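re: ur question from yesterday

yeah so i grabbed the chain u mentioned. its 130 aa long if i counted rite. heres the sequnce exactly as i have it in my notes:
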Amino acid sequence: PADIYLIDEPSAYLDSEQRIVASKVIKRFILHAKKTAFVVEHDFIMATYLADRVIVYEGKPSVDCIANSPQSLLTGMNLFLSVSFAAVAPLHLDITFRRDPTNYRPRINKLDSTKDREQKSAGSYYYLDD
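ran it thru and got these structure tokens back, copy pasting raw so excuse formatting
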């Protein structure tokens, strides 16, 4: 057994339900074994299931970027969703997330909906409670 696990995109080739099961298995193992894992994951649902803390990178990928210090899931996701990626392209995600009250999965709010406007004005692009 290792002390630190480095896991690269465990969701590759898995369907959405398999991703949730895999994330629960990975998290259960890491917590039970009292180990640390660095997981690179691009699937938003799986990343939020696995993460206790996140590292947000800013800048131009593979050219010039900085890694922010590890942050809580809520703080890191709010930074990621609010930052402008102008170095890559004139890109701003301009989306907000809420948690579905029945299955707790993250859901994108409809652009310019009441919930979307409320969260943006509060700086809460990623919202855990309803």
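noticed a couple things. The chain has a mean pLDDT of 87. also The longest helix spans residues 16-33.
anyway ttyl
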